[in-house]
Structures are given as C-alpha cells and as structure tokens.
Amino acid sequence: MLNLNRAQVLGNLTKDAEMRYTPNGHAVASFTVATNRRWTGADGVQQDATEYHDIVVWGKLAETVSPMLKKGGPAFVEGRLQTRSWEGQDGVKRYKTEIVGDNIIVLGSRSGSAPSGSAEMPETSENPIKNIAKDESKDKVKEEEIDIEEIPF
C-alpha cells in the first residue's frame, strides 16, 4: 500500500522564528506561517479566512534559515505532517499537528529588507524521506562562447 504525507504552504510568518537546542544539542527552529483564503459567499459578499500553520525545522536547516525567517516575511515551506501529544499540567492529554519542514524558501520581506535564500534539509539517518537521485547529466549545460557583439543591449 502506498502512503503520502506531504504538506506545502506559502504564506507570511506571524513572528520571527524561534531557535532552540534540545538537551542533546540538536537544533530546532519553530515558527508559524499564515495563509489567507478569499471566496464569495452565496450572498455575493466576499469573505476572508486565515489559517495558521505551525512549522518545526530540525538540524542544519534550522540553523541556516532561522536568522532569515522574520515576522511578516513570505516563505514557502514543504514537509510532512506530524502530530505529537503530551499530558498537560491539568492531566488532560493534548495534541498538536505541525509541519516538519524539510524544504524552506525564504522569499524576502514585504519591505524587501530581509535577505532571501533557500535551503533543503540534508539527508540524514533521522530523515526517513529519501531523495530520488537526480540525473546530473541533464543539469549540465554545454558551454559555448558568447560574442559580446551579438548581445542586443
């Protein structure tokens, strides 16, 4: 049986990413991305809804993108859904579903002042998702000389 657990969101950060380290020294960054949806209701009135997606990023990827993830800035996040549970101080079992990001593209900020970049999680034994090997020969472009006089500008 085939299974698929992938999530993709493109939205704006609700606050700066929070960078922490586990007691074992593993880097973890967490942040929230807001996405908006607009539709016209049956009464003809436009309506808006905002969804908030909690994101967790681990390891080197967390350390790389955390400084670039600023409040209000747009980002594309790709990863898998994961639900964790814990018992609260009141004895009630609580649940939280998050996106565990393995590909983050920081698109900059609304004002354009934040740096842009993209990062992908390196393949580790902790990351069960295996990358399909790319045919690198397709990525190579034949180099050819360009005559400066042929450039139209």
TrEMBL record:
Coiled coil: none
Matching InterPro entries: NA-bd_OB-fold, Primosome_PriB/ssb, ssDNA-bd
A GO CC term assigned to this protein in UniProt: nucleoid
Residue ranges of the region described as Disordered: 110-153
Biased composition (Basic and acidic residues): 132-143
Bias kind Low complexity: ranges: 110-119
Keywords: DNA-binding
UniProt record, GO biological process: DNA replication
GO MF annotations in UniProt: single-stranded DNA binding
Superkingdom of source: Bacteria
Compositionally biased residues, Acidic residues: 144-153
Assembly: Homotetramer.
Protein name, UniProt field: Single-stranded DNA-binding protein
Source organism of the structure: Candidatus Berkelbacteria bacterium RIFOXYA2_FULL_43_10
Source lineage: Bacteria, Candidatus Berkelbacteria
